[in-house]
């Protein structure tokens, strides 16, 4: 074997052009597969670094669109009454808090991702402590009575230098003191794929760091993910049956239960529970990108097949020049198996070199993938560094590729016509008009057409989404998220903070308008409430509640939302002071100011068909009460809040501070790039209170892009891989036709000596090119039309068999392959008949 490797390296050194083309082709194919596998491994395949992860399961609702969202009473009931699990854990990951160490003078607070977990979280997962201890069930009993935190190993090293004396040190989270009791094992950052939790705190400490969350322990506050560990002998099927029984018991004990409006249309399915494997944890990020990654893995697999066909074609062309050498070896007694092994070793050396080069391409590709991922409040934790799994995949892909590329050429090369080969290389080179090389070109063309049609569909679908009107102007609008409530602000003090920030932002010269809102468009957040509209009777099967948003005056101007009828809010429409949250009302509180609200077009069409909405009355209750009614003073254009693909729901806007909560986002419309205002916002917020960090600054354009991030990733990568596939196919076609011209030099010379014109000779070669491309297209077109149904869910505004896309892909493929075939055909017309006749 070592001898064969040395020989293969010498052969490649003598044929550097062949080696360079073959290695580059395989590097592109293997590198693309390795890059996608790296992300796929992280998101879908990698197990949590915990004890026996294969025993973990996720408790989900709605089998068709799994949702892992429960309230705390649900968790306690399932934990205490199940027979299938040895333990059930609850966690809420993906939020962030202002973290500071009081003893570190001059170091400002930083925003860190935090996980709120049940007391049995670490013990059930089997995560050990590096230093100190981890939570126990006794640490999660009484609200506000367990101010303890566990650090991740990363935060421990970054902020405390890995000091084991960190135990007992005081830190603050949103200004609330906590004590460090331990450090979790290295590499563990929670159960949510893509989220990197740096701090863990008990669930019962939720209201201490987030005062508005006073309903954390109540029904219908769906904020926890549940996972469990199966008992020995239990299966996901048996656990699913038991969970549905328990869920029906929960529903019977809660007659007021109703699913959120987002799930109202699927309420029956939403009340069906399913237990899914959870060895890799749980994350909506995984749910969002698992299918796109599967599609991309199929795509890069086809690209690698095309690259393999290219290299196989090169090997076949090269073997034609080695027929006499192989014939001599066989004639003097060499075993055919020995020659096959040597030729395969040459191919394996090429494929391993291609794999090594592909690793460099893969690391670059991974960085591109990360750039394509959506921007979020909590950045995605995708540390896609090389590890043994990825290196093993690249090595295995290289070996398999080498065998695929080399087996057929090796077998064909070692079956020569001995007598003919020893007499003349030309005689040995004669083949049928449709040999293995041409078959490989047909395969490349078919696969390339399939990828081109898929890429074209994604490109056109993304174009439709980008042209979609979300109901607001997304250019030059900045959304700033702060949370002064987490630092103890409430009541009039909270309102004063926001109003000072709003006033300052509106005075900057780069700002056209500024406003406040509880919910920003396309954020996916929801707040709904029961309503009653004067003169409208709800049907028995109709949901009696709609979505709400509280906004300040100029909100619609800031986002460019047209006012259809009536007027905007005024400062006088807001209450004189902020009322207490609804769960702890102040009986003495009286909301002052007129009771007014604004509705969107969908609301007006549904509740006021054929009559004017402005001036009508509505109550925010399950019964209509005239003394608590609100007057509709305006109608605005529909705006998408929950996704660009989602249908617009009826929406009610209430004046800012009228909803009883205090969390707001500052929206700023600028005259230039909104990123230039970020520094001013941070500076002004720091002057108001340096202890309140800016949680997020995000332009509304980025918000829109986040909503179509899945489609953008698919389009960008499929477009790139489609172009790469066509390029490789064109190179393969060029190689076959160039080799065919070289083999037919004497024939072409005779034809031209007998009077054949250049156009006739050119058509002789182009006709064969057209035959190969035509057969490939005839095979690829039906396959593409059948397989595009798999990506139907990713398309918007067109069908998988869109004729314009299919026709465009076919024309583009024909144009590129025609160019690849024309170059050898043109070269054939330059053959000198006298030189060709003396060729042999």
Would you mind describing this structure in some detail?
47% of the residues lie in helices and 15% in strands. The chain has 840 residues and is α+β, with helices and mostly antiparallel strands. The strands form 3 sheets. Strands 13, 14, 15, 16, 17, 18, 19 and 20 form an 8-stranded mixed β-sheet that branches. Strands 2-3-8-5-7-6 form a 6-stranded mixed beta barrel. A 4-stranded antiparallel β-sheet has the order 12-21-11-22. A hairpin with a 2-residue loop joins strand 6 and strand 7. Helix 1 packs across helix 11 and helix 15 runs antiparallel to helix 21. About 3% of the residues have low confidence.
In short:
With 840 residues, this protein is an alpha+beta fold. The protein has 25 helices and 22 strands.
Sum up the structure in keywords.
single chain; 840 residues; alpha+beta; 8-stranded mixed sheet; 6-stranded mixed beta barrel; 25 helices; 47% helix
Q: Helix count, per DSSP? A: 25
End-to-end separation:
37 Å
Radius of gyration: 34 Å
Overall pLDDT: 83
The total beta strand count reads 22
What percent of residues are in strands? 15-25%
Biggest sheet descriptor: 8 strands, mixed
Oligomer kind: single chain
The poorly predicted ranges are 425-434, 577-591
The secondary structure category is: alpha+beta
Helix content: 40-55%
Taken from the alpha-carbon principal axes, the silhouette is globular
């Amino acid at each position: 074997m070592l001898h064969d490797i040395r020989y293969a390296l010498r052969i490649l050194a003598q044929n550097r052009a062949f080696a360079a083309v073959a290695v580059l082709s395989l590097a592109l194919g293997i590198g693309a597969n390795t890059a996608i596998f790296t992300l796929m491994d992280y998101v879908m395949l990698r197990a949590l670094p915990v004890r026996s992860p294969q025993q973990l399961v996720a408790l989900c609702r709605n089998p068709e669109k799994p949702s892992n969202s429960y309230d705390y009473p649900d968790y306690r009931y399932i934990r205490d009454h199940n027979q299938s699990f040895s333990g059930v854990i609850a966690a809420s990951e993906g939020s962030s808090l202002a973290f500071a160490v009081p003893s570190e003078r001059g170091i400002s607070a930083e925003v860190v991702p935090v996980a709120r977990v049940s007391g049995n979280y670490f013990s059930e997962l089997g995560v050990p402590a590096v230093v100190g201890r981890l939570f126990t069930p006794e640490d999660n009993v009484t609200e506000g009575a367990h101010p303890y935190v566990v650090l991740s190993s990363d935060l421990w090293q970054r902020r405390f230098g890995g000091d084991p004396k960190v135990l007992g040190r005081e830190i603050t989270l949103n200004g609330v003191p906590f004590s460090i009791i331990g450090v979790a094992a290295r590499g563990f950052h929670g159960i949510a794929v893509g989220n990197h939790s740096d701090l863990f705190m008990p669930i019962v400490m939720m209201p201490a760091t987030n005062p508005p969350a006073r309903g954390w322990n109540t029904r219908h506050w769906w904020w926890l993910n549940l996972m469990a560990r199966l008992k020995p002998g239990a299966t996901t099927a048996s656990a699913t049956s038991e969970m549905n029984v328990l869920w029906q018991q929960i529903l019977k004990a809660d007659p007021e239960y109703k699913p959120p409006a987002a799930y109202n249309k699927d309420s029956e399915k939403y009340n069906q529970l399913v237990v899914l494997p959870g060895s890799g944890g749980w994350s909506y990020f995984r749910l969002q990108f698992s299918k796109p990654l599967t599609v991309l893995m199929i795509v890069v697999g086809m690209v690698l097949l095309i690259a393999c066909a290219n290299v196989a074609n090169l090997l076949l062309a090269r073997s034609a020049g080695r027929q006499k050498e192989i014939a001599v070896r066989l004639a003097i007694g060499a075993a055919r198996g020995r020659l096959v092994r040597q030729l395969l070793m040459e191919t394996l050396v090429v494929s391993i070199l291609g794999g090594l080069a592909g690793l460099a391409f893969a690391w670059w590709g991974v960085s591109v993938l990360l750039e394509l991922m959506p921007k979020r409040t909590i950045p995605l934790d995708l540390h896609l560094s090389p590890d043994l799994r990825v290196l093993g995949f690249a090595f295995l892909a290289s070996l398999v590729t080498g065998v695929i590329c080399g087996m057929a050429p090796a077998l064909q090369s070692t079956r020569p016509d001995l007598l003919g080969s020893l007499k003349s290389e030309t005689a040995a080179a004669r083949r049928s008009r449709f040999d293995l090389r041409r078959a490989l070109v047909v395969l490349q063309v078919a696969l390339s057409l399939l990828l081109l049609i898929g890429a074209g569909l994604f490109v056109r679908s993304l174009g439709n989404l980008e042209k979609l009107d979300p109901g607001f102007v997304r250019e030059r609008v900045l959304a700033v998220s702060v949370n002064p409530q987490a630092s103890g602000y409430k009541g009039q003090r909270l309102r004063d903070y926001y109003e000072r920030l709003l006033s300052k932002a509106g005075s900057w010269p780069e700002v056209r308008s500024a406003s406040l809102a509880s919910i920003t468009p396309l954020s996916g957040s929801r707040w709904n409430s029961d309503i009653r509209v004067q003169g409208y009777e709800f049907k028995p099967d109709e949901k009696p509640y709609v979505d709400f948003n509280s906004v300040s005056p100029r909100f619609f101007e800031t986002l460019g939302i047209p006012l259809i009828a009536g007027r905007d809010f005024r400062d006088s429409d807001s209450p004189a002071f902020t009322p207490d949250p609804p769960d702890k009302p102040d009986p003495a509180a009286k909301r002052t100011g007129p009771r007014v609200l604004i509705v969107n077009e969908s609301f007006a069409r549904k509740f006021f068909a054929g009559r004017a909405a402005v001036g009508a009355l509505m109550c925010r209750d399950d019964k209509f009460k005239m003394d608590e009614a609100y007057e509709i003073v305006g109608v605005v254009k529909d705006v998408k809040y929950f996704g660009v693909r989602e249908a617009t729901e009826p929406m009610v806007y209430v004046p800012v501070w009228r909803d009883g909560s205090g969390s707001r986002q500052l929206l700023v419309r600028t005259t230039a790039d909104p990123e230039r205002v970020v520094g001013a916002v941070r500076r002004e917020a720091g002057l108001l209170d340096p202890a309140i960090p800016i949680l997020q600054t995000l332009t509304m354009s980025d918000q829109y892009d986040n909503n179509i991030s899945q489609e953008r990733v698919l389009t960008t990568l499929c477009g790139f891989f489609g172009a790469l596939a066509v390029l490789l196919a064109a190179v393969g076609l060029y190689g076959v036709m160039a080799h065919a011209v070289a083999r037919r030099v004497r024939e072409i010379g005779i034809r031209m000596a007998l009077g054949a014109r250049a156009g006739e000779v050119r058509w002789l070669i182009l006709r064969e090119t057209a035959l190969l491309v035509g057969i490939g297209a005839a095979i690829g077109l039906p396959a593409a039309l059948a397989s595009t149904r798999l990506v139907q869910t990713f398309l918007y505004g067109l069908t998988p068999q869109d004729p314009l896309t299919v026709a465009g892909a076919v024309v583009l493929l024909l144009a590129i392959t025609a160019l690849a075939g024309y170059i050898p055909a043109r070269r054939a017309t330059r053959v000198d008949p006298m030189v060709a006749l003396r060729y042999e």
